[in-house]
Design goal:
This protein is α+β, with helices and mostly antiparallel strands and 353 residues long. The chain folds into two domains: 186 residues, DNA ligase/mRNA capping enzyme (D-amino Acid Aminotransferase, Chain A, domain 1, 2-Layer Sandwich), CATH 3.30.470; 139 residues, Beta Barrel (OB fold (Dihydrolipoamide Acetyltransferase, E2P)), CATH 2.40.50. 18% of the residues lie in helices and 33% in strands. The chain has seven helices and 20 strands. The strands form five sheets. Strands 3, 4, 5, 8, 9 and 10 form a six-stranded mixed sheet that branches. The longest helix has 11 residues. It catalyses: ATP + (deoxyribonucleotide)n-3'-hydroxyl + 5'-phospho-(deoxyribonucleotide)m = (deoxyribonucleotide)n+m + AMP + diphosphate. It comes from Kitasatospora purpeofusca. GO terms for molecular function: DNA ligase (ATP) activity. Keywords: Ligase.
Length: 353
């Protein structure tokens, strides 16, 4: 492979802001794997946000990219899986599997798509120093004839339209809007764009915590919500505390610590088979590898209000943020019924197919 922009490249990132800023290019915030595609003839490499190759996990995309993209190019975009008019991040996670046979099976069963939103190189020319407006024009021309599963992300400079997208697109599984300065060159690894995400709150049961890597203080709170059958499902974690607050939380929660998991709703967490029927903490992640996933059990008696941005099925897509304790709420009252359900919106309308 011999391109004017060579792997690995750290993608340009976005910083969170509360409102959609004026005078920029606006795009949907896609909920998938950020990826930079390098193509030199038949050679294809799909690089992740951290620079690790994703190529082997998406053989169907390698074939499609050879067919639908220019012979020599570098594209920034998102690998997604769409089904029934929505993005399916959980199905995307299943693709990170060590067995090639499993990857091939899922490639047929739940094929992925690539949504391009920037062009970093074309032919023998690097476009990194070009302003966004020039890169966007070149991207649209380069992928003008591309067909499913390779798409160009919709973009606009109308802030009112961006507000409409922000309200509608969540129903298709997207989780916000990205705003990009029009005259800005591509700045690898820098938070030089802006992201605007939905924020909602939920009352959750705290049934345990993980210790911080620095020692016996709280690293993250383990959150639960009751399903329709009354089972406490693990929905995610609450983190990002100061060190002083981590120590305070460890002291606050000490009276609730328990070593008897017999009656604990997540008592079977160490049994791999138990994870098939319930949301329990401690499921091994393909991303974390051998990371210690042990946790400190607590009697599930305290309720916390947290802020979250997006649901991934029955759990929080990202780390939730602590808002306040809710002594006025009982653990049993923390159910999925409290969660706001976005109005459904067909993803095919976003992609124009």
């Amino acid at each position: 492979m011999d391109l004017p922009v060579m792997p690995p490249v750290a993608p340009m990132l976005a910083k969170s802001v509360a409102k959609i800023p004026p005078g920029m290019q606006y795009e949907a915030k896609w909920d998938g794997f950020r990826a930079i595609v390098f193509r030199d003839g038949d050679e294809i490499e799909i690089g992740s946000r951290t620079g690790k190759p994703l190529t082997r996990y998406f053989p169907e995309l390698v074939t499609a990219l050879r067919r639908e993209t220019p012979p020599r190019c570098v594209l920034d975009g998102e690998v997604v899986i769409a089904r029934d008019g929505r993005l399916r991040f959980e199905e995307l996670l299943e693709r990170i599997h060590p067995a090639a046979s499993r990857v091939e099976l899922l490639a047929e069963r739940t094929p992925a798509s690539f949504v391009a939103f920037d062009l970093l190189a074309l032919g023998d020319e690097s476009l990194l120093d070009q302003p966004l407006t020039a890169r966007r024009g070149a991207l649209e021309a380069a992928l003008a004839d591309a067909t499913d599963p390779v798409f160009t992300a919709p973009a606009a400079t109308d802030r009112d339209l961006a507000e409409t997208w922000f309200a509608q697109y969540e129903g298709a599984g997207l989780d916000g809007i990205v705003a990009k300065p029009l005259d800005q060159p591509y700045r690898p690894g820098e938070r030089a764009m802006y992201k605007i995400k939905h924020e909602r709150t939920a009352d959750c049961v705290v049934a345990g915590y993980r210790e911080h890597k620095s020692g016996p203080v709280v690293g993250s709170l383990l959150l639960g919500i009751h399903d329709t059958e009354g089972r406490l499902q693990h929905v995610g974690v609450c983190a990002a505390f100061t060190m002083a607050r981590r120590r305070e939380l460890a002291e606050e929660l000490a009276p609730l610590r328990t070593t008897d998991l017999t009656g604990h709703p997540w008592g079977a967490w160490a049994d791999e088979a138990a994870h098939a029927d319930a949301r329990l903490p401690g499921a091994q992640s393909r991303w974390t590898g051998k990371k210690d996933l042990s946790w400190v059990p607590l009697r599930p008696e305290r309720v916390v209000e947290v802020a979250y941005d997006h649901m991934e099925g029955t759990r929080f897509r990202h780390t939730a943020q602590f808002r306040r304790w809710r002594p006025d709420r009982t653990p049993e009252s923390c159910t999925y019924e409290q969660l706001e359900e976005p109005v459904s919106y067909d993803l095919t309308r976003v992609l124009g197919v």
